[in-house]
Amino acid sequence: MSNLDAARFQMAYSLFFHMMFAALGVGMPLLMVIAEGLYLRTRKDTYRRLAKTWAKATGLLFAIGAVSGTALSFELGLLWPSFMEFAGSAIGPAFTLEGYAFFLEAIFLGLYLYGWDRLSPRGHWLTGVGIAFSGAMSSVLVTATNAWMQNPVGVETLVNDPANVDPWNMLFFGNSTWPLMAIHSTIATLAAVGFAVAGVYAWQMLKGKRDEIRKHGLTIAMAVGTIAAITMPLTGDLSAKVLAKNQPAKFAAMEALFETRKGAPLLVGGVPNVETGEISYGIEIPYALSFLAHGDFTSEVMGLDQVPRDQWANVPLVHYSFQIMVGAGVVMMLVGLYYAWLRWKRPDQILQSRRLHWILLLSSPLGYLALQTGWIVSEVGRQPWIVWEVMTTASAVTPSPGLMTSVIGFTTLYTLLAVVLVFLLRRLRHVQ
Amino acid sequence: MNTWLGLDPILAVGAVILLAILAYAVLGGADFGGGIWDLLATGPRREQHRLAIAKAMGPVWEANHVWIIFILVILFTVFPPAFKSLSIAFFGLFHFVLVGIVLRGAAFVFRANAETTSPSWRLWTQIFGAASLITPFLLGMAVGAVSGGGIRVSPAGVVTINAAQTWFSPVTIGIGLLTVALSAYLAAVYLTVETRGEMQEDFRKRSLWAGSVMFALAAILLPLIPTGSPHLWEHMASPLSAPPMVLGVLLAIVSALSVYRRNYGLARFAAVAQVLVILGGWAFGHWPYIIYPDVTAYNSATAIPAIRFLLNTLPFGLALLIPALWLLFKVFKGEHPQAETK
Ligand code: HDD
Ligand code: HEM
Ligand code: HEM
Predict the structure, then answer these.
(1) What is the pLDDT of residues A25-43, one digit of tens each?
(2) What ipTM does this complex have?
(3) Which residues pair with A266 in a beta bridge?
(4) Which residues of A touch B81 (CB under 8 A)?
(5) N or C: which end of chain B has fewer CB atoms below 10 A?
(6) Which among A65, A429, A168 is positioned nearest to B309, based on CA atoms?
(7) Which residues contact B105 (CB under 8 A, 6 or more apart)?
(8) First-residue to last-residue Cα distance in chain B
(9) Are strands A261-262 and A300-301 parallel, antiparallel or unpaired?
């Protein structure tokens, strides 16, 4: 493996690993806060037990998220030193603000996890709100760094006239990629966590454990999961429109559109052949792509033919990943709607319906699947650029020898940690 | 150069980094030290020690640890070329630090769910302890290495390392060991404040041990500095640095004596002050270098806007952070923190 491939692999593996926990770091606090808030209102003990149980799991998961995030901050430099030299001062401001969010999140987490007996009930609940809020802010702020890599606003100024760059404009207010990325990816974490947690309870119900606490657990998780899942196609559609404007080459790879066309059709499924530029086994929906990209059925959509061949991303991977995200998103939305309908019309079925439990169990990994495949679209679709059309990934990689060792080391370490975690979480029981 | 509120902005950023390093040393350092005592726990109250350490660290360690992220972020935001050179020079060292940080945090929370008699408790205890010992050693070595002059950065940014002068230099290794001893000392002194009865006596003994090791290491290290790290020595030998050095020694003596006389509140105060003075002294000696002799804060600083951004947002960030930190420490580190909990 070349240094470049090794570094890409290590970065990707670390980010996937971090993302698993980061999503929980955004989603779990919200679930805890809802459960504890319901306890404060209704004084039903099951809600308190739920909040405490979730807090126990979160304590474990959050620590892994925090240390893997710390590892990432080092890895940015260790793996991509020239990128950080070039872009450090551009993306640093977002990381600085994010640092405050991390700090608050860690502080409130300490207060929340260890403060059950030391704070007033309301005060304790408020520290939970603090975690949920700063967790969401972490996500919103860190995506600004990624948004700048996708859409490097102000890069000419950065290179030619650095004394006049405007960080607020580059990263946030002048960067049209950021707001949608922030919203779509932050809500994605909630959808992923809501469905994953609901799946755990559905599974237990299938095994016959149908009690009050599991019913409340499932209800809270699905409330969050459903609301989040319904908004995903909306924000995703807006993201696609921004993408078509800011990164047409990535958009073309994602849709496997080899030829520039007016009134372009939307491809559903399909196996793209990069050599011949042909698609097999796909279904085409006439004019839909033009509409999705630009809001006009006859508009022209740029294809890969306008992108130099050596600047194509990995078209099949990006295309399949996009299809998986969208497919998962549509299924999740339907499942959410079915659940909401059932809960509205026949609330007794929430505990009883085996069909519902099977559906929830089977769809529980979909949120995470969409989360990770979505990031593949974003990140692999950005290739060969580390900073879109400015700096290539190959030119940013570290010259240090020994990358293979670190790749093997980190892969093993993270895999072992994941195994232990699964083992520990399986032993977790509801707190009395 | 532009100014910020009439100050030299680069100097202001340097001060911010120094404050973050100091906070990390007295807070994060003590967490590492706690892990070291966890590893070295012996005697009949061994598991009680471990539980006391876990209880002391539990609520605060994640917050204490964010300081290092902060340092890193400021470094790459304001001094990108220096960050690049550090990342290349410390490619191996930082990877080991990362393994240490990851394993330490993971083992700490994994262990919290185990029974003290189970084999998994023993396994996680060993991993947690070993990582807590090695990580501060490596971080201390990094501090020694950037002042030692063995890392050279050409004007084109090519990094070359003289291994003998960097990794195997007695000064680098000595600073690593001293960092370990300081962490252990801080933790033991903090724990005397947090515990009562026999446990308190145990940690008093451990403070005295760690203090003696610290004095011994400092005594061995001092004569090595003129040859191992001439640039630091130049500064230490100047008359201006005499008062802080004397102060540092005095504080070390005061804190050790207070431990001996069981005046733990004063001991904690003096121990913290001592670390601040020692590290502050190193920082003043090192400034304006980031990597001696080629990379300085001034020749690697980015253009003014990112610096301004950092400094302008700082007061707002601190306005959120300081009350939150205050609350955290008040709730968990007030009077008799371990006396009343169940
Ligand atoms: C639960 C997760 C989830 C779900 C259900 C969806 N997405 Fe998504 N999507 C993400 C999770 C995600 C993500 C992982 O969070 C990404 C990666 C980068 C980002 O900002 O969000 C993403 C990126 C992303 C992008 C690329 C943005 C870029 O590269 O800049 C587009 C165009 C869409 N999404 C579109 C959609 C559509 C049309 C969906 C319809 C159902 C959809 N997403 C569902
Ligand atoms: C979209 C992507 C990301 C999201 C949503 C995200 C979110 C989060 C969240 C919520 C946490 C809190 C800890 C936890 O919940 O487990 C966290 C921790 C952390 N993340 Fe990420 N993160 C992302 C990407 C990154 C990247 C790319 C980096 C660095 C290069 C990074 C650096 C960190 C650090 C340093 C921490 C530790 C903070 C602490 O000690 O509390 N994150 N992240
Ligand atoms: C929000 C903060 C993020 C930042 C700053 C960031 C930064 C980077 C960097 C510097 C690289 C290496 C250079 C390159 O390959 O172009 C990279 C690659 C990659 N990232 Fe991200 N990333 C972020 C979020 C994520 C998340 C959350 C995921 C997945 C869960 C992810 C998945 C990947 C993958 C798969 C690659 C490898 C792409 C390839 O080389 O083909 N990224 N990212």
Answers:
(1) 999 999 999 999 999 999 9
(2) 0.90
(3) A285
(4) 85
(5) C
(6) A168
(7) A63, A64, A66, A67, B61, B62, B65
(8) 58
(9) antiparallel
